[in-house]
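Incident log, entry 3
Record: histidine kinase (785 residues)
Problem: checksum mismatch between cached and fresh output.
Input:
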Amino acid sequence: MIVLDRADAAVLAAIAVFWIAMAAWATVAGMRRASQGRAVGDETSRLASLIATAPAMPLVVDGEGRVEQGTRLGRWLGLPEPPTTLTDLADEGFGLPEKDVEALSRDVAATRRSARGFSRAITMAGSGRVLLVKGQPDTVTGRVILWFIDMTDSEREIERLGVEVLRLRGMIEALSTLIEAAPFPMWHRGADLRLNLVNGAYVRAVEGQSAQQVVKSGLELLEAGNSGRAFQVPSLGREPGAVSIRTAPAIIAGERRTIRVVDVPLGEAGMAGYAIDVEELEEARADLRRFVVAQRDMLDRLSAAVAQFGGDHSLVFYNRHFIRLFPLEPEWLAEGPTFDRILERMREEQRVPEARDFPGWKAERRAWFNSTTPMEESWLLPGGTHLRVVAQPLPDGGLLLIMEDRTEHLQLARARDTLLRVRTATFDNLFEAIGVFAADGRLQLFNSRFRDVWKLSEEHLTNHPRVDTLVQAIAPQLADPSRAGLVRELVRVATVERQQRVGRIAMKDGRHFEFAAVPLPDGNALFTLLDVTASRDIEHALRERNDALEATDRMKSAFVANMSYELRVPLTTIAGFAEMLADGYAGDLSETARQYVDAIVHAVGRLSQLMGDVLDLTQSEVGSLPLSRASVDICDLAKQALDAAEETARVGNIHLKRAIDPQSLCVMGDDMRLRQAFDHLLRNAIDYTQGGGEVRFSVGTSGEQVQVIVSDNGPGLSPDQHRSIFEPRQIGGVEDGRGIGLPLVKQLVEAHEGTLTLESQPGVGTRAIIRLPLTDTPARVSLGA
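Fresh output:
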């Protein structure tokens, strides 16, 4: 047994520890190398996978021309066997073109010599695919690595982009030409917002010399603001598409105009803009506003209901008659209800036609907004109201609705049609021949009588012939053909000179017509013909009879006058001898004889007076009564007549009252004839008043006339007696009427340009009123009627 000292044991222990430590380090290092190997293997596998899936396929060419990694490329090129050399890439019928393989071999050789890469594009025969071959030298191994990349899609894209670039270049050139030719200023600003590009209109607007000079000088279109900068960046940011639109005044070519400026930020490319002269547009808008105000004021005054709807179908305007025609609240209308809402409210108020399918009916009316032509309808409302509805589409998509109440118009139209039919029937059945001529002389209307009188055909007259043609047609039918032109002249006078003419015309067949040409209010002329043949014959007969009667009347008057004169001689003789007997020339008479003689004297006097009245009346009727003309005081004449009648009234127990104006009332006339009239009135009043009665005689004025009133309270006159009181047929005593006294009084008063009226009531009395014109008009109190 070997016994080691402590020092040896320590050394051995140290060695053992060292080897243990080395063993542990070797173990750890091995494990780390194994881990790194696995990581390298994984990375190698990943890289191999990336190379296998990469769009570019590698091919390694060594110094002797052999290739590696060509299996995948061979399959991709369609080679039957993997290539071993570059020349294998040009297999017949497959692979690359032979000339391209030869060129590729030269490129590889050049790369090996110069250690510089290369690129070559190869077009595959038959397929049209394009391969890009990039070669890189491996300076360590001396090999050349070739990467084959399929550039077919890229080349096509490049080709497309090239065409697109050419197209865009043309568009840019065209756009530049358009911008330069634009009639309004356009510009572009850089990132610093300074002018970078302007067109010709901008140069002309700022009165510059050229675009370069304007850009260099920075001439702005708008005037400088308060900050002193001519251009103010709009508060919209610099994001593209944030467009700024503003309206501002500017000096354009030396004139102050209103322009609309549009700025379009382009991001980092700066900002583009243009300006449009809106001076005329603003004026047009102002004119449009004034026009709209005037139009709405006019629509508000229309008698038709008007409602205007906007493009959104809401109510934007209505006039006063709309509210009167449709009982809708103005407050509700002011809210701008829609077209459908208004139709519904109108239906509730029974102001739309009844419809079974109201939603469909409403949809049809809603289509008015999309119509291109005005629509017109007639609405019959439940209450019998007729509405004429006109829907006018507006350019802004709105609708103008005009509703006119045609109820009264239709009623008037029906009445007019009825009147026209009645007028036509009346016109055609009149006895007169009627024709209406227009201002140009053409016959417009005629009745059947007109056609029959002139013996013209219906076809000829319905062609509205001119009056010249009618004159030629009717001339042969006239007794004097030369008078046919009178018809033409009458029509001319009535239509042109607007004067009426009448006359007579004779026909060849013996008929006679009265004609008249009357101007009508519408400028036409009415020509009428009335057959007066029968009336003319009757008139001729009546004229002959009247001449005979006048001759007979003259003979009667002459006979009466002659007989009145002849009777005066024996009456005078009888009166003379009776008066002599009464005066006792033949001796004393007994009482009975005296009574007989007094009766003879009274009868002779009465007969003498009657004969005088007859003679005066006869002379008055034939106009031969002699009258003097002098100023006569009616008041004095009335007093004389009253004084003469006092005795007769006293004998008959009649109270005679007088009321005579104290002033003189004078007339021009014959005092004897006027006294005769007064005497007759007083005598009649006294004779027809019973005893105890009253007769009143008054004289006064009534306006500019002397008024004489003789009244009594006798029995009065019956209506028959009153109607015939002034007819001089009843001659006799009281039983036969009032004789010829009143007719004679009437003749005498009228000969003095006066009037005699008689008022009588049975059982009340009679009043005779004479009115004569005054020769002077002093202020007097009127007695009244």
